[in-house]
Amino acid sequence: MSTTTTATTANAAHPSSVSALMREIEHLGRDRTRGGYSRPVYSHPELELREWFLAAAAARGLDVEIDANGIIWAWWDRPDGNRSGALITGSHLDSVPGGGAFDGPLGVTAALAAVDLLRSEGRQPSVAIAIAVFPEEEGSRFGVACLGSRLLTGAIDPDRARSLRDADGTTFAEASAAAGFDPRHLGPDPSRVAQFSAFIELHVEQGRGLVDLAGPVAIGSSILGHGRWRVSFTGQGNHAGTTLMADRRDPMVAAARLIVGIEEIARTVPGARATVGRLEPVPGGTNVIASRVDAWLDVRHPDDDVTAALVERIRTRASEVAAQQGCEAVLVEESLSPTVSFDANLRDTLQHALPEAPVLDTGAGHDAGVLAAHLPTAMLFIRNPSGISHSPEEYVEDADADHGARALATAIMAVEAAPH
Ligand SMILES: [Zn+2]
């Protein structure tokens, strides 16, 4: 694929700043309708971003491989080429629809900048460093977040992954094949995972924690448990003009009542967040009573039992509101990630290395949360003055981004030196 971006070649005298790297990709995947960026996995803009990353890695002499799950690994090898005990960093390049510039790309550009910084200082970690780019972290195209890291670690069945469909009906297997991967080879790669000693993911903060603490960088403590469910209401598709109100079985009305109900239910549970951010009526015509409406539900809470109980209350409410409209409701789990606490030893090491950085948890999911079940993982969060994310208003100051790359470089050297 040809690419319209030019990756900078950093050299020891001129390490790249994060903002310079971000500027190289700022034109890719802009969404003129929603604002911000729409970079769904394996879409044209996301493939261009991947090409940009491959060029940026090659310009630095990093050895690049793309594994069977579409994860890109850019290696800064030890002189002897030994990759056992490698330390990984990186993030993702896909986005939600109309997302911000920094969610994902900040972790990738900061990783490149951190490598540049260490090299400019003549420092070489004692273990290999790999910068990873994980596909479909947002789950915005195929519905399952962190799909690349789930496939890598066996957290999702490859058959299920292959059969996931996007809004146009394209399966993940088809999209993978179109992007150049043989979908028959999707699946767990335990020997690769066993190579790694730790993962540090740098990410824009997605809330107001650091704004309130007036600091540029925080160390992650945990990721709130979260899950996605699809609620499908089925009724009777019919003519909007000829069908009397009393004769209708309208699943859109049931969906609307459920959305209001979810808001009521979630407000009664301290710390809970429940959202319906996507609704799809079938067939979706102005003068048509829908025959089916699918609503997608996102629920999060620090206590996984509370999340489960909340979803059961929502399931019951869905059945009640469906019955009121003469419809039926089915609630299906699409993904569920329990609350993850990051590795305590790794966090201690980071706190020693970055004594100014506060410790924060997050309500947002990340590949680091999936990998945490298999190796020590940690996160660094970078201040987002707007406190807004998954929106064009997400923002990071240039100086904070560079502060983040410096913190990541410091973290890498502290972790590789720590006893494992
Ligand atoms: Zn992200």
Any overview of this molecule?
- This protein has 420 residues and is an alpha/beta fold.
- The protein has helices spanning 18-25, 44-59, 105-120, 147-153, 158-163, 172-178, 190-195, 209-213, 251-267, 304-324, 344-353, 367-371, 398-417; strands at 63-66, 72-76, 86-92, 129-134, 196-204, 217-223, 225-234, 238-239, 273-282, 288-289, 292-301, 328-337, 340-341, 359-362, 377-382.
- The chain folds into 2 domains: 18-224 and 340-417, 3-Layer(aba) Sandwich (Aminopeptidase), CATH 3.40.630; 226-337, Alpha-Beta Plaits.
- The protein contains 13 helices and 15 strands.
- A hairpin with a 5-residue loop joins strand 1 and strand 2 (72-76).
- Helix 11 (344-353) crosses helix 13.
- Zinc ion (ZN) binds next to loops.
Relevant CATH superfamily of the largest domain: Zn peptidases
Largest sheet: 9 strands, mixed
Which percent range describes the beta-strand content? 15-25%
The unique ligands bound to this protein are:
zinc ion
Q: Can you tell me the overall shape? A: globular
The helix tally amounts to: 13
> How many separate domains make up the residues?
2
Structural class: alpha/beta
Give the end-to-end Cα distance, rounded to a whole number of Å: 41 Å
The succession of helices and strands, N to C, reads HHEEEHEHHHHEHEEEHEEEHEEHEHEH
Radius of gyration: 22 Å
